[in-house]
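Encode chain A's predicted structure.
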Amino acid sequence: MRVKLILVAGIALVGIGYVALRSLSVGDAAPDPHAHQAAQPGLPVFAATVAIKPMPVQIATVGRVQPMASVAIQPRLDGVIASVAVEEGQDVKAGDLLFTLDDRALQAALREAQANLAKDQALVENARRNVERLLPLAAKNFTSVQSLDQAKTDVATYEATTLADQAQIQADQVQLTYTRITAPISGRLGTINFKLGNSVRQADTTPLVTINQIHPIYVSFAIQQDDLNHLRAAMLAGPVAVSATFGKSRALVGTAAAAKAVGTVDASDDPANAGAIRANRQEQGVVAFIDNTIDTASNTVIVKAHFDNPRDRLWPGQFVNVLMTLSIEPKAVVIPSEALQIGQQGNYVWLVKDDKTVAVQPVKIDRRIGDELVIASGLKGGETVVTEGQMRLDAGAKVEIEKATPKPADNSGDAPGVNP
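Encoded structure for chain A:
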């Protein structure tokens, strides 16, 4: 029995040795995990190179268009409108005639005052001649001194009366000028509230018409108090540029060419002209005024920008996007906005290393300019970051960079820069 057990054990050992020897002979070694990983294809992603280029330092906000000056035309005297020389919405210049009031009563009063002046001037001449006759008689004591003094008093009295008459004439002439109501400033007329034949009074609260000056014009907007010193420093260096962009709209009447000329046609209708039409919805100006007080409720300060507005595209009360350029940073580190990821630890990007693997790189954002981000820290420029396909990535994953296709033209018409 013992011999049989020894024989079975020997046979088993021989079999094990045979199997081991065959495995060594055919080279059936244990698989290398690194070799397996190298054989796997990389995950397809899109990537971009971190750029170093000049970028503007901008403040983006919203604003309202305000007229440079606005005057409500009120009558200076009571009367009846005899003529209306303008139409609603008309552009006028300073000094242009707007309304004429019935002046017949004032003309009659003026003629009466002129007649009184002529009468009193005649009395003055007669009183002077009377003095001249009495002087030689008084010298020879042929008349009393009292008579001579009375004659001189009559001259002084009539001369004073003529001065009063002249003052009345001037007052009547001034009143007559009030019957011709002219434009005190250049601008555009609003609604004409009183028509031909209407009676008007000085006490009326409703103006005859309102004139708004729109050449040039203001755009008023608010900035945070933290940006105030930056703006003041930029103004010391020179004029601070401001762009005002208004939203796109579709022309309802007129030809397409006319609609494009005034910037009311949707740029997507004509991709070849998208850039020109988008620029046609933008006006350029400069900062003209900073308010002298910060609003304590909102911690903002009011700023006004001056626009020439040659094509009347900025309209009082209009809502516009405002972009104010303070300076140009010559060597800014810039990435596409698509590369930015947001995690529990903050902002980061997927960095593509030389061996085609990716790693998480934390970054801090300074500001956003259109579709690009200016990096404050975390990148130096020249690195490659993933812009599309980040959802499938893990640290150390191998990637394969795909060739990006060109983006279609941006027809949004929005302001090109927005601060984060």
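The chain has a mean pLDDT of 84.
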